[in-house]
């Protein structure tokens, strides 16, 4: 079933997924050191990749020990995708088309999983890229709700020239807190229908899951994304100590530099269980504000210093969250372990409860039990914030300038009960003085002084 090119890759079973800002060269080499057999680059935007040399240099890096390697592109223009593929064909073993990204940015850019309804465009993209380069073109997709449509979709891509298919067993809508469980039944059905090599993606948290997926679906290999981020040694079948695997990664970063945001993201994933403990808030803050490699290493050193005595058994570690459930042993927090999300149903119930509690806080009644609207309550609060005004200020609108032809309010302290303008004119014309308005006859006095001097 597999083609010659796939045999030349060694028929890999353990595959590191393409991950934006996460599957950079240092991380790929770390995973290869721990049994990964094939790695994908992060998703690269085809249009930017063809136009911006700086983007190519920063986001596409590889080395002689970074093989086999598949480069992934996103985009919706067949010619641009083909041009991008030509720029990397000599540095990789295959080129992948991202048809599985479900994020909102993919929707705005019209790529990833938001192309799965435009089959004619996808055929053009796969065909154009296949004709432009000598390496195979592969696709990473998500399933539809219907198994039959998922099969038809896969066969369309195969007929267009796709040489390897990676099927993520979730739909486009399954993302974030609504991710849920990947459907291996869909993957199994697609595997039976296509004749090209195929990888499965979804529900992989340990090495046992890899073999269970292969046996159930019949795929050639299994791809891991979230699982490999929390445990880079997943394919090796071990759960390493967090600070040891983190320091190994930082040593690779020192040799193959990458942006600090990538490093920070990886360390947060590796230490995710430790950072759930309140006693580690300071270390978490230090990682969040780290700016260079030494800062990141300092975080690892601090965590090692704190938990090494527990790991070596010199001090007993007691945590209320570490309990046995049947034969399942909960790992201590300093050991790499998968991140387990709550189910979509639990998330929905949690959001509904939060909404009800929020609405309950907003319901306010007056002493008679009558509901006060939010708009009226806002006015009441604004009124209560105002200081009580003295009577003089309150009655200001009732006192009008005594000049019959002037409609303006008079000054509160004006000796003549005039507005400022009328008071100034009176003081100028009659050589008088108003203490309230502080109106003086500077101009008249100056004129008199000038006359006397002459």
From TrEMBL:
Belongs to the Dus family. Dus1 subfamily. InterPro entries: Aldolase_TIM (IPR013785), DUS-like_FMN-bd (IPR035587), tRNA_hU_synthase_CS (IPR018517). This is tRNA-dihydrouridine(16/17) synthase [NAD(P)(+)]. Its cofactor is FMN. Coiled coil: none annotated. Transmembrane segments: none annotated. The lineage of its organism: Eukaryota, Metazoa, Ecdysozoa, Arthropoda, Hexapoda. Its EC number is 1.3.1.88.
